[in-house]
């Protein structure tokens, strides 16, 4: 017979033979026992974790002549024909090589035909994410409501590429990476059946290199068996898989502790000369320092170790490393691994990473680190004692207490300086109001909306709730609704320059802008009007007064309107001033 690879010969033929995936097996078996199977399933997960194998086992259990059963019997004609792939009612469809809509239409046309010799017609569509959009659209309605004798099982390693409309029509099962212990148990079963002896450590090397994939593990096991013969050794497994032995890791750790750059780089060069992949080296180094960190912080959790055996030699080595140093090593290697992905000079990156690790300033001994912390703490305590002693002397003498209090209060004053309220420029506002005219304020208000559109968005946002309230020939008062916005605008030199330029381009005049919050404006305006009315009463014949016959300015109108009774104002709007007469009670 033609030789077949281990992963083909020892493909699981029942749920009991499947490694790991307990959540998947139990759910499917319960559905079979209680006759609650559905019409569509989605199996997703990393490569080599048993998706297609589980689909075939489920198809056998569903169509078994003794079922539906928790486990297929693997003895009836239906189970045997599904196992050897000759059953016409269990169709395995490879979407990677049949991704067009025409192939999908062919399946859809045959779906309506009843199964020829089985209970259900099962379609196993592998690598379903490779289907085209038109093929997905063609499958959509059939997948939602297939005939009662049809079951779809979709398998994929990239579920994120599937349309949500497909995923929502299926029961989804996420297959997890298989643990190293499960992989080792399965490899022991395979080797025992094949009559081949092996070292436990050799199987650990293969399981670690498989990265959670059973198919990868059995393929590498097949390769190691072909290389070594009747007995698997650690050296053979390391050579075939390209992994690194514990001895090399131990030597590298010693070189890093001794800060021996020559020894570390020589080890790295030797590994690369032996054909080790540089990217794989970085990954192995990260795993190794992770194992040391585990031995350093949780020595009882040796079952979680991946690269080292956890014997006394590595336990002592881990104690010589400070945890912070191991954390730093892992960070450096992780960043290096990312940078290597985009470079053709990966050897330079791994060499630089080793040199960075050697020149780290973190102490390798926890004792030294503790002594340093104790020394710093003692120094701080001594300084505090001196300060307390000085304060006690001041209290005893009664002198300097007031000065000390002022010194303490001074930083508070400085700290809260920025939080003080906005200082209203009363003098500038009075100067504008003295020379204010109705024409000037109307000009600015007419151009204000257009001018706002020419400003930067950040400046326009700050001036969003502002209003020009008084203007003279060369300046105007800008009122802000909120004091904080007023202060921000007054401190923003870029805004002041932009506003002045925008007004000059729109009006032809270079106006000076006086900023004032709304509350401050009301107070200053009231004070100005009161003083001017009082001055007119005292000197009504003043020849310099030119505003007596003019229409009141806008800000004066606003002040008078605010003092009116709102009921009177509303009555005047409805009936006219000539029909309204107000009596004071």
UniProtKB/TrEMBL annotation:
It catalyses: DNA(n) + a 2'-deoxyribonucleoside 5'-triphosphate = DNA(n+1) + diphosphate. It comes from the Bacteria. One of its GO terms (molecular function) is DNA-directed DNA polymerase activity. Residues 540-552 have a biased composition (Acidic residues). Its EC number is 2.7.7.7. Residues 37-179 form the AAA+ ATPase domain. Keywords: ATP-binding, DNA replication, DNA-directed DNA polymerase, Metal-binding, Nucleotide-binding, Nucleotidyltransferase, Transferase, Zinc. Pfam families: DNA_pol3_delta2 (PF13177), DNA_pol3_gamma3 (PF12169), DNAX_ATPase_lid (PF22608). The keyword Nucleotide-binding applies. The keyword ATP-binding applies. Residues 533-562 are annotated as: Disordered. Gene3D superfamilies: 1.10.8.60, 1.20.272.10, P-loop containing nucleotide triphosphate hydrolases. InterPro entries: AAA+_ATPase (IPR003593), ClpA/B (IPR001270), DNA_pol3_clamp-load_cplx_C (IPR008921), DNA_pol_III_gamma-3 (IPR022754), DNA_pol_III_sug/sutau_N (IPR012763), DNA_Rep/Repair_Clamp_Loader (IPR050238), HLD_clamp_pol_III_gamma_tau (IPR045085), P-loop_NTPase (IPR027417). CDD domains: AAA, HLD_clamp_pol_III_gamma_tau. Belongs to the DnaX/STICHEL family. This is DNA-directed DNA polymerase.
């Amino acid at each position: 017979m033609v030789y077949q690879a281990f992963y083909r010969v020892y493909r699981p033929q029942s749920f009991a033979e499947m490694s790991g995936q307990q959540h998947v097996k139990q759910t499917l078996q319960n559905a079979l026992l209680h006759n609650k199977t559905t019409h569509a399933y989605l199996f997703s997960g990393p490569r080599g974790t048993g998706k297609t194998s589980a689909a075939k086992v489920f198809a056998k259990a569903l169509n078994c002549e003794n079922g539906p059963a928790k486990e297929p019997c693997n003895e009836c004609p239906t189970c045997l024909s599904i196992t050897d792939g000759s059953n016409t009612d269990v169709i395995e469809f490879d979407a990677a090589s049949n991704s067009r809509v025409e192939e999908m239409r062919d399946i859809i046309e045959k779906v309506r035909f009843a199964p020829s010799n089985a209970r259900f017609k099962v379609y196993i569509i592998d690598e379903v994410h490779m289907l085209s959009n038109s093929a997905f659209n063609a499958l959509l309605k059939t997948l939602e409501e297939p005939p009662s004798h049809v079951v779809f099982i979709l398998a994929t390693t990239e579920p994120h590429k599937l349309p949500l409309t497909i995923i929502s029509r299926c029961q989804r099962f996420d297959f997890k990476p298989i643990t190293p212990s499960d992989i080792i148990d399965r490899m022991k079963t395979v080797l025992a059946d094949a009559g081949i002896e092996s070292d436990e450590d050799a199987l650990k090397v293969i399981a670690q290199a498989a990265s959670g994939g059973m198919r990868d593990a059995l393929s590498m096991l097949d390769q190691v068996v072909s290389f070594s013969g009747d007995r698997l050794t650690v050296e053979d497994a390391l050579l075939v898989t390209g992994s690194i032995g514990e001895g090399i890791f131990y030597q590298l750790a010693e070189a890093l502790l001794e800060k021996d750059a020559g020894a570390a780089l020589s080890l790295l060069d030797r590994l690369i000369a032996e054909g080790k992949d540089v990217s794989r080296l970085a990954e192995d180094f990260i795993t190794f320092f992770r194992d040391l960190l585990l031995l350093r912080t949780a020595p009882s959790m040796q079952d979680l170790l991946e690269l080292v055996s956890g014997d006394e030699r590595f336990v002592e080595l881990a104690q010589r490393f400070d945890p912070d140093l191991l954390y730093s090593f892992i960070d450096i290697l992780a960043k290096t691994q990312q940078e290597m992905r985009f470079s053709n000079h990966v050897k330079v990156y791994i060499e630089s990473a080793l040199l960075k690790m050697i020149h780290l300033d973190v102490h390798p001994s926890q004792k030294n680190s503790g002594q340093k912390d104790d020394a710093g703490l003692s120094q701080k305590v001594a300084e505090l004692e001196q300060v307390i002693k000085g304060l006690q002397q001041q209290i005893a003498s009664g002198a300097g207490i007031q000065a000390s209090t002022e010194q303490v209060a001074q930083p508070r004053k400085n700290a809260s300086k920025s939080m003080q309220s906005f200082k209203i420029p009363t003098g500038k506002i009075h100067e504008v109001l003295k020379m204010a005219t109705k024409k000037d304020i109307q000009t600015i208000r007419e151009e204000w909306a257009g001018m706002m559109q020419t400003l930067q968005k950040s400046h326009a946002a700050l001036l969003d709730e502002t209003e020009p309230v008084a203007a003279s020939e060369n300046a105007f008062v800008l009122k802000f609704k909120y004091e904080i916005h007023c202060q921000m605008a007054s401190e923003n030199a870029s805004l002041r320059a932009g506003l002045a330029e925008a007004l000059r381009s729109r009006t032809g005049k270079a106006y000076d802008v006086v900023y004032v919050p709304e509350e401050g404006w009301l107070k200053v305006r009231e004070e100005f009007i009161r003083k001017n009315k009082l001055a007119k009463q005292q000197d009504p014949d003043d020849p310099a007064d030119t505003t007596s016959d003019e229409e009141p300015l806008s800000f004066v109108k606003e002040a008078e309107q605010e003092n009116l009774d709102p009921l009177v104002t509303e009555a005047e709007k409805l009936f006219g001033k000539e029909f309204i007469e107000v009596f004071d009670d």
